Structures are given as structure tokens and as C-alpha cells.
TrEMBL record:
It holds the Pfam family LCAT. Keywords: Signal. The lineage of its organism: Eukaryota, Viridiplantae, Streptophyta, Embryophyta, Tracheophyta. GO terms for molecular function: phosphatidate-sterol O-acyltransferase activity; phosphatidylcholine-sterol O-acyltransferase activity; phosphatidylethanolamine-sterol O-acyltransferase activity. It comes from the Eukaryota. Residues 1-27 form the signal peptide. One of its GO terms (biological process) is leaf senescence. This is Phospholipid:diacylglycerol acyltransferase.
Amino acid sequence: MPRRRLRRGDLACSVAVAVAAAAVAVAAVGAVGGGDGGADFDYRKLSGIIIPGFASTQLRAWSVLDCPYSPFDFNPLDSVWLDTAKLLSAVNCWLKCMLLDPYNQTDHPECKSRPDSGLSAITELDPGYITGPLSSVWKEWVKWLTFETALKLRGGPSLVFAHSMGNNVFRYFLEWLKLEIAPKHYIRWLDEHIHAYFAVGAPLLGSTEAVKAALSGATFGLPVSEGTARLMFNAFGSSLWLMPFSEYCKADNIYWKHFFEGKGGCHHRQQCDEMEYKSEYSGWPTNLVSIEVPTVRDTEAYPSIMDTTENITSSMECGKPTLLSFSAREVSDGTLFKTIKDWDPQSIGLIHQLEKYYQGDPVLNPLTPWERPPIKNVFCIYGLDSKTEVGYYFAPSGKPYPDNWIITDIIYEFEGSLLSRQNKIVTQFILSRSGNSVTGKPNNSSGDGTVSYNSLSWCKNWLGPKVNITRAPQAEHDGSDLQTKMNVDHHVGQGILPNMTRTPHVKYITYFEDAESIPGWRTAVWELDKANHRNIVRMPVLMRELWLEMWHDMHPDAKSKFVTKGTLLVMS
């Protein structure tokens, strides 16, 4: 067995370079294994495939665009995303190269941009700095050809590393593949082409930040106004891929519809189980959106909340605002946008995108919970216990689109509690700054600063009925602070808690591992204390654990199903 001993230099490498060099690292492991006198293994056949997150790859211009009153123009192959100089000096010109038509997803008539290729496309723009897909071109990023090429060039399966929204892109690929090849060949193809799948920071039930981006804009630290950020977000058809949705609602089985009704033209009918109507928040900590509307114009604008609108008083109709709240289901099925379209006509574009590209997609409605991918080795990795936004209060601003809504309050989850923007703690009830009464059911932990805990930890449902749990410090340790519980009972849908102690000021990794429930398959969930969503891919501790896991998988003397979590020493 390889010991958990690494040189400090190994921990400092960046994620993109480390993953792209996975084959080299595995080749080195193979040399170690051969030196131990084991069987003759050719570990150099493995390759690594990276699927980055939102806006984590470069865009380059494919056309000429003259920018008047600016020293900058766009020429073919010029950088568009992200060229900060052009963004600051010619923002309107730059937006022509960035925005897509919200209805048909075509380029601006004056400028066309496309993703860059090669490793530099992600290493020169911080991988994962912003989370989610940039535009519909992401669906072209991962094609069957990518895996076929890797197999032909290296002769072995791939290690798939996906960050944030890249996981949803990979999910779409798997569902597309299922419809493209014969059923009996589907699992065999996956076994031959994919050795392991590492899902890092996956928003498995979406992220509430997408709601903020759609209604008021989210700049993610860029030097643009929130209104400009909102224009960009709402122009990209795949931005809605980040929208939160209910864990209790599923789409009908497109696999059987594919055979009995043919490809295309099928609308995904959403089926919700009784828990959707028994639970208050669709499995989330609280209502995701509460929005003030100035008056009621037409009850047709409220198709799924008729009972609410029928009782609105005449005083509200005369101008007194009324507060409407929306659950995750009502966000993902379009009820929110249909409700506010009288005051925000641009919402019609979002309704169109939901109906065409999600509910009407011929392969998958991605705004539905997903089951464990049928891949031999699946690792779900995320950070936890950071302050994370889980709900918003909006009100009209009196300004035109895109600045017509303002956020009046934000609800956060933080280490098992809910907080308002003023940091007032709630377990079941709070009063926010604006006087809004907020009820909620906090998660046992909080998210990674971008995605809430219930969304990140959905992959715990992929674990079997018996789970081994280990908690170890992230830093080097002598094993004295190692905690292990074997064969912990796990009931799907009820969560699984480590029930272990913590030493103050020590950051831990908690491993949930299952190698028994499905013969030949392994499933693991890694929770990293205080790991930030956008920076987790650059954390040395993550690189160390990925490297150790690959080493373990390829080592001829490995006896355990997972890497042992004993002494970890880091040599200087």
C-alpha cells in the first residue's frame, strides 16, 4: 500500500495542470508498483478529462468588430472572455461579443465568439472562478469523440474531473449517450471509457445564487454593474441550468418515450411525489424567493398560486404591495417568472428558455434530481460550513430593466442556522431587517459559499445502506485525531451524519465510503471543512487526496477498497 506521504512541492501544483498531468502521475505510480515486484500493469493508458464550471474557459472572437470611440477593436482570435481592458473601456462593444439572443441563442449580428481550445483555455483563466455554464456552447464541450479520442490515443479509460456546473454538462452527456447506443452496450461503453468520475462542488439541486443573478444580477467580483451582469446571465440559455429545484419532483422517463414516441418534440411532464406537498420548502431550508408586487393585474399571471391571488384584498389592488413567496419547485417550473411578467416583461424570455431548452429538451430536463451515474468509481467532493445564501427578498426599484428589482434582504445558512443579512440567528423563525417573518428548517451544515448544503450533499443518496465514515484533519497528522465508524446505517432520503467530535480551529475532511452495496462499484463522498466553492479546485489538500486516490487505484499491492486514512506526513 502507498503511504500517505507527499513532497510539499506536489501539493503546490495547480488543479488544471495536475489533472491534465494525471496520466503522467499515474505512470509514475506504475513505476512504483513495478518496483514493488507486483504484476505488470500499464498505468500510462489512463487519461484525464476536465469539464470546468461557469465562465471557466476562454472565449475568442470569430469576427471583426469595430468599436467606435475606443482604442480597442475585436479581431478574429482576440480574447473576449476575459479581456478586462476591453470590458472597462468599451463595455457596450464587448457585450455585443458576449450576449446571445435570449430566444434563439444566436450571436449578435456584429460579433461572434466561441470557446478556446487546449489546456491554456482554462489555465489562463482561473478554473472555477465563476460557477456554472456560460452559454449553450457548453453542450458541445464534451462529446462522445472526446472519450473515443482519449481511448484511441492512450489505450485506456479516462478519469473525469468536473467542477460545479461541469457536472451537469457531464450528466447531460451520459443521458444523451444512453439514447445514442444500444442499451446492452451502454454500461460496457462506460466501463471501457471511464474509470472514475470526480464530481467537485456539484450543484446537484441547483443554487439559489442563480435566482439573484436572474432578477438583480450577480457580478462575481467583475468590474461591471449588476444590471450588466443580469443582461449577460439572462441572455445565456444554459444559465437556467443553475436554477434550484425540488428534490421531490422528477421528469417522466425520456428513455422509454424515446423508443415509443421517437426523438424530439417531447415535453417533460414533471411528477412530484406527496412529500413535495407535505414539505414546506421543496426540501430546501426556506422559501427561495419572496417578492413584493405593487398590484394585481391579471390572475392569469399566477397559474399555480390561484388560491393565493384570489384572496388579495382591495387595498392591495389599489397599490399596497403584497408579498409573494416561491419554493424551489415554483422557481424551476417557471411559476416565479410567469407571476412577475406583468412587471418584468423580460421574464418572458426566461419562460421561453425554460420551456424550450429544459422542459422541451429531447434528452433531459436537467432541473430534476439525478441518480448515481452508472460508473464504477464515483467520488462526490465539496466544501461545507461557509456562510451561503439560501433565500432572497425582492422589491421593485422604480427603475427600468435590467435594474427594476432590488434585494431588500438575504437569508443565509451558516453551520446549522439560518441568518438574515443582519446576522440574526434563527433555528425555526427569524425577523429580518425589513420586518419579514422568515420560517425555515436549517440544514445540519451549511454550504460552500455558493451552493447550499442540501444541494451539494444530495450525492449522499448515492451511498448504499451501510457506510464507513472517517474524519481526519486536512493538515498533516500522526493519526491521533482520526475518527472512524464502520457500517453506519444509511436510509436514502434521510441523510447521514458523522456524529463525530471536532477540535476547535482544526479543519477536517470527512469521508463517507461505500464499496459493498453494488458489487464492483465504489461510491465516496468527501466533505472538506471551509472549502470555498470557487477555490476548492486550487486547494492543495484536494490535489493531495485526488493524487492519493489515483495512486491507490493503480497500485498492485492495494488491499483496501479506498485509501487508508492513517498517518499523513508531508515532507518538506
